[in-house]
Amino acid sequence: MDYKEIIAQYDGKAGGIIEAYHALLREFSYLPEEAIAEAARIFKLSTAEAYGIATFYSMFSVEARGKNVVRICESAPCHVAGASDVVAALERELGIKMGESTADGKFALEFTECVGQCQATPVITINGKPYLDVSPAKIPAIIAEYK
Amino acid sequence: MVNLTIDGIKVSVPEGSTILQAASEVGIKIPTLCFHPDQSIKANCRVCVCEVEGNRLLQAACAMPVFEGMVVKTRTPKVLEARKTILELILSNHPQDCLNCIRNGNCELQDLAQEYCIRENPFEYKVRGFEKDFSTPSLFRDQDKCILCRRCVEVCSVVQSVNALGLEGRGYDSMVVPTLGKALIDSPCIMCGQCIHACPVGAIGEIEQIDEFLAAVANPDKVVITQIAPAVRVAIAEEVGMMTGEMPMGTFVQGLRQIGFDHVLHTNFTADLTILEEGNELLKRLKEGGTLPMFTSCSPGWINFCETFYPDLLDNLSTCKSPQQMFGALVKTYWAEKMGIDPANIYSVSIMPCVAKKFEAARPEMNDSGYQDVDLVLTTREIGRLFRMSGLDFSRLPASDFDSWMGKYTGAAVIFGASGGVMEAALRTVYEVVTGKTLEDVNFVATRGITGIKEADVDLDGTVVKVAIANGLANARKLMEQVRAGESPYHFIEIMACPGGCIGGGGQPITKANVKRVERIEAIYAEDAGLPLRKSHDNPEVKTLYEEFLHEPLGHKSHELLHTHYHPKNKKFL
Amino acid sequence: MAEEMRIVLRNYGKIAPLKIDDYLTQGGYKSLEKARAMNTADLIAEVKKSNLRGRGGAGFNCGMKWSFAAGAQADQKYVICNADEGEPGTYKDRLIMENDPHTLIEGMAICAYAIGATQGYIYLRGEYPFLISTLNTAINQAREKGLVKNFDIEVRSGAGAYVCGEETALIESIEGKRGEPRFKPPYPPSEGLWSKPTIVNNVETFANIPVIIEKGADWYASIGNPAYPGTKVFTLTGDVNNRTFFEVPTSTTIREIVFQFGGGIPGGKKFKAVQIGGTSGAFIPEALLDTPVAFDSMSAIGATLGSGATFVIDESRDVVDVATRIAGFFEHESCGKCAPCREGTARTAELMEKINEGRGSNKDIALLEKLGNVMSYSCLCGLGQAAPAPVLTTIKHFKADYEAKFM
Asked: In chain A, N or C: fewer CB atoms in 10 Å?
């Protein structure tokens, strides 16, 4: 579906722009300018407002990024459980730094705050799916699922 | 009424009042930054916090409603420490280049830093170092100076319905940015400059062109002439420490001669001329079934708005150029010829209450004289700075008169400076042209005042003309939506981009509250009432202009020099 | 010896979450039926009498809150479930939604009847996308069985903003805006979602409701600490043997949570501190461990119960490093609307990094304290007011650790 069709599904839903942005992310992994402007039109906002919403929430990105968004939790419970070692392992495995995307457009690597799986720290998520009790040794196999 | 105690003083205020309002009743000033008297409550800067008995948290005075028996303390040690710390936080990333700032001496943050004796800031000084946005010919933005009060965002969206500004990001990274974080020129900005008035600091300002002016004055080959817009005189007084409207015209003219103008003329002359052209255009449209309602075209912010948001309604706009541009075209043709001056040597400066005029003068089509018709636009504020630079004492300066040709005007031209003025001036003339009778009472009071939308029915000897007037573009938008829907009952609509009309223009002395605009409006009508001639068609110099040069309204020469056409802006993102 | 007592997690492991018949077999939706047989004033009086206090952090009497919305005149009212649990170390609302979604729906439906609302929303944090279908399935089941009658619930997703746990920010987010808190008053029960009277309660709060209606206010009020009765779910993280969850009466002490339920510190190490309530909670030293976890007793020691997240650190941990990370959290999560939070969280993070890297001095500590105090009573919302707590309490209780960092 193109961005107009995706957004049109939420037409008439009061306050539905955030839902529409989620749907756009599932398709494009980020929010292109044209899609933000279209969402503004559908939800009767200015493009400036729609952009303000797009840049407020940490899951949304207005910059193009890798298709599979890998996020590592850096909140205190994960921090003390060795999240920094996992960060290093992810950077090594993907050959990019935190905040970057791989050249083939397959992966984006980001920090996140707590994802609510604190019974099994450290935690990473890929496209929202949590991976628990992650260690540097487990990283290659997890990433391989998405290659 | 609600009874409460503020700093030990008892006060009764209407229910729904805030602590801030109640405190001002008893002479207690509480500091504010994000508060704006004509805007919604924001409560985001927190410098107005006060103690309310029984509450551990400090409360924002601008937002907190009073209640019966409330006990407020506005300057306890806890309050003072909080305010001072918040100011230190804001100042810790605010550029400390006050001396070079366009708002030096007229900055709400600077005032508070002074009042709260901010000396050594304990927080590390860290300016973000954004590039300034000089993308428009009218306004600049200095992102580093923004304190995120959001007053500009509100005026741009709520008052003007332009929505060129919004927020980006979150927390410490949040910023006020033009649409999609792009340059201002790529946003729907219509360059009205109302955000300049809203800004408490120097984060937005006019593109200052004082140096260009001084260079022209210094150039012996240039004949530097000026035109003064109708709204400037009433407000310029505020720039030099006088009361609104207090500076006599003669003193103002003398001041302009002192700062280097060779000839001082008046936009009012072409305001009168506009009425003859535009009045006849209206009559022609009424008679010949032209596009109606006809919209006025003097306000360049409004023109930008129409070209941006209502490109389908451009045919409704009067083809008359604004008085500034009519003047520009005539100075380098008619006037130059009359004065025996080579137009190539004329440096034509207009003094405007407006920043959008800077853009208008630079439009590529505005060169019908064979030259750029207006070379430079200076705002009322810039003239104020030039006056201060020149050390003039206006209480002693002897009066001077305008130069002849294009310096004479009527009261009808004067009122162009206030919302409803163009309409009233047009009605004064149209009535006499249509009816052939003398208009006994020239005052069309229904058109006056700062009310957002005004309307009137005017009986022209049996023919009723329905007119409407809007000031502030959110109001204009309402009328435009009617027109677009084919439901507009009007024949003629006057629109001024800025609240109150040109007296509230983006180039006027910084005007935080609408009450100031109302004062200026009163000064405008007082000037009109005191003039011997109050109808544009009675202006003797305009009569001569038609006899000698233009021959008739809407004639061949008029079309060549005084009329224009409009272009859809085709902005990608609105 | 404290014992676990399951009220909100009563069906955990006992039912298949998406088999509504399982829930019905356990007496599910009986409370809703019972509530609907009562007049709304009596129903609200019952909830008020139970003294159930909001489990979201502010601890406001739930029935009292409902009474404000019930008394407000409006053509539409809303019930919102705050399922935006963003406090690091917290996952109790997820447990409830994952394992017993119908108890939440029933609690919301009772509230809707009490205040006269026909539309509800569950604002689900964006980090729980896998729960959207669970909740929607459960809502559809209840709808199909005709259980919720004229009350409808829609699930809305957050998108990664801790501040949306603040009720007015949450409301803004449902309205499709930036999740920035509003100035209060007006409070949501009088003017909330789309300016209509709105009740926002946490998942755990709603999950208590069916049981209160079933067993009565007096029964509930007698459990745990009388000023803050009932149970609380705790989720244990950090240096503790049992990194798991428990539901216990509110009279339980911190020591019991950490050492009895948590099984103490692994590896024979010594306890250093515990942070309760999530990342905005105070750090509590050994000396205060016998404090009951109830709202007011925690307030008395300058701490909060908050979400019930319990983050334990042992003697080998660098408390300054942990507090520095937490300061980074607040810098990242501040919405940026009010100046003291926007600038203050960033400056706190900067000063903490400076100290953590060995470049600090006592002057920086003094500045952190001044800044933290000012933020705690000047910021617009609870985020900025609570943000300094971890820094202020670690300075208070572990100043030597800070000083040891100085070069």
From this structure: C
